[in-house]
Specification:
The protein is of the alpha/beta class and about 230 residues long. It has two domains: about 140 residues, Periplasmic binding protein-like II (D-Maltodextrin-Binding Protein, domain 2, 3-Layer(aba) Sandwich); about 80 residues, Periplasmic binding protein-like II (D-Maltodextrin-Binding Protein, domain 2, 3-Layer(aba) Sandwich), CATH 3.40.190. Helix content is about 35%, strand content about 20%. The chain contains nine helices and ten strands. The chain has a five-stranded mixed beta sheet, with helices on both faces. Helix 1 links the parallel strand 1 and strand 2. The longest helix is centred in the first third of the chain and has 15 residues. The protein starts with a strand and ends with a helix.
């Protein structure tokens, strides 16, 4: 069976798709894997917050359209981008082994949020992160930060922000461990639901593909993320 994976075209999303591709190619019954790259609405609209244009679900809609139209068979999503309620045409098979679920503090000049001086600008696209930063450090200034991972790091390096907060998992997956100044403990910043986990989505009723992909699903991670999603 040849499998087509729908993926966003950012460097991190393509890493995730390629990671799944390599695992699939090692499974019996898989004759080949192609990656169908595409740009989602969430990637295109960068001048407004996600909350104002439809939420993180915008990152998966185009991938789901590719599934429905038969242009792809499997979609790979960051767990934190998957809405709780999927349309009945789709099936979330589960989640793969989880990377670090924590948030990461990234700065060229400071070691942690606690070290930032009053008025320092912290960048984040996440309302969750923004609220938690301001709750603990009201003397800081939090400003929106949209774009893919490389774009966000570039804005930090150009001096637009004194620090930014990103998912540790994405930095680690791209080999950018050195950019992490501090991994923020969950007692200081509660991670997003499903953060660090990759979810696999197919068309509902595709039992052959579901059975074929089953070895990639981590039952422990799936149980943990499902519990998180149930209370989100």
């Amino acid at each position: 069976m040849k499998i087509r994976i729908a993926s966003r075209e950012s460097r991190l999303a393509m890493w995730q798709a390629e990671h799944v591709r390599d695992l699939l190619l090692a499974l019996p019954g898989v004759s080949g894997v192609d990656i169908v790259g595409m740009t989602t609405k969430g990637d295109q609209i960068l001048d407004r917050s996600l909350a104002k244009i439809g939420g993180k679900g915008l990152f998966i809609k185009e991938l789901e359209h590719a599934l429905l139209e038969g242009r792809a068979d499997l979609a790979v999503h960051s767990g934190k981008d998957i809405p709780m309620d999927l349309d009945p045409e789709f099936q979330l098979l589960g989640f793969m082994t989880r990377e670090d679920p924590h948030d990461a503090f990234v700065s060229n000049d400071y070691a942690s949020l606690a070290d930032l001086p009053a008025g320092a600008v912290v960048g984040s696209s996440s309302l969750r992160r923004q609220a938690q930063v301001l709750a603990r450090y009201p003397h800081l200034k939090v400003e929106p930060l949209r774009g893919n991972l490389d774009t966000r790091l570039g804005k930090l390096d150009s001096g637009q922000y004194q620090a930014i907060v990103l998912a540790a998992a994405g930095l680690k997956r791209l080999g950018l461990h050195s950019r992490i100044r501090n991994v923020i403990e969950s007692t200081d910043m509660l991670p997003a639901v499903g953060q660090g986990a990759l979810g696999l989505e197919i068309r509902a009723g595709d039992s052959q593909l579901a059975e074929l992909v089953k070895p990639l699903i981590d039952p422990v991670c799936t149980a943990l993320v499902s519990a998180e999603r149930s209370v989100s």
